[in-house]
Known about the structure:
Layout (H helix, E strand, L loop, with lengths): L1 E6 L2 H8 L9 E4 L6 E4 L1 H5 L12 H7 L2 E4 L2 H15 L6 E5 L2 E5 L8 H16 L3 E6 L2 H13 L6 E3 L3 H10 L10 H8 L6 H5 L3 H19 L15 E12 L2 H21 L2 E12 L10 E12 L2 H15 L6 E9 L2 E2 L15 H15 L38
Parallel strand pairs: 2-4, 7-8
Antiparallel strand pairs: 1-6, 1-7, 2-3, 5-6, 9-12, 10-11, 10-12, 10-13
Helix pairs in contact: 4-5, 11-12
Amino acid sequence: MYALVDCNNFYASCERVFKPQYRNTPIVILSNNDGCVIARSNEAKALGIPMGAPAFEYRNVFKEKGVQVYSSNYALYGDMSNRVTRILKKYTPDIEVYSIDESFLKFKGFEKYNLTEYCSKIRNEVLQNTLIPTCVGVAPTKALAKAANRIAKKFPQLNGVYVIDSEEKRIKALKWLDIEDVWGIGRQFAKKLKTKGINKAYHFTQLPSDYIRKEFSIVGLRLKKELEGISVLNLEDVPCKKSIATTRSFDTTYTNKSYLQERISTFATTCAEKLRNQKSTCNIVTVFVTTNRFNEAHEQYYKSINVIIPFATNSSIEITKYAKKGLEHIFKQGLHYKKAGVIVSGIAPENEKQFNLFEDEPVNHRKIMNVMDKLNFKYGSKKIKLASQALDKTWKMRQDLLSPNYTTDINDILTII
């Protein structure tokens, strides 16, 4: 059996841990540079505040409705996530941290356990030790565990835990679950299915396997098997990311090319670091720039470009070089740029790197990157940079509503009076 432990409204819950007076108050968390809403408490959802709402458009709504607004505090959220994970590891050795607020647990050899009681115990300990509320869904497969978790979250009378342990429960869950809410079915996938009258997860499982494989590839076929209760996705079977992106909205608009060059260099370096952390390489770099779509007084512009690297690499030097080449092709003088980003794709495992007979990265790049990573880890992130990253500047996001780093900064520790 698999369990999916999901932290409820995680970012908002983290803020409430240290501000209990807002336990029943609507809370929203803003994106980088305080741009738009990326997380909401249940109270904020009930007010009709949508995900992605531009903060400046909803400023009056926040004030009128008494909504507490916070900048994203990733240091706090990451540490709280680690605390939850440490508790979960006490209950089973098989765990997959799926995201900052979700983890899959595998219960192998737990046949004699009452899993409803066992998961309630997990949930209670997490709440007691971290004050983070969770819901737990248990089922024979990961996809069904996702569905069970959604049911546990939807119906309060289940006390945050739901176990799909019979064929009757599986069928009932699939007939309840909307097709767009099925784990692994994206917006376009769901739209295509709905045109054929497939509105529930159960309808999807009734489609012929040959048809699913033809229309939706082997991925769709695996999903069907998972929903049928046949486990084909183990904890280790998490596919590598098809792309890695680093994008940012700026604190204001910029027209000078040198600023964008520095930003693109920094974004490319961050992507390269992420590649090295997961021991992967890439051979495609996508660069994009865009103006502020909310400012109609200025000319609107969005442009992206794919740059092919002739060899697989995770070198910050090489990826930055090709990213800057891309910027040269899409930069337009005189415009007011509000956002830019770098996306790397064509990702493959580092130990399966495809070499180019005629061109490859310099042999010393891997050693240089290794030294940079070690020094940055030892002395702090971004101590060692590329020259194109503006060595005399430390760029900082606008975070006017940032809460203290209660658990990671000694200067922000709560004072008890």
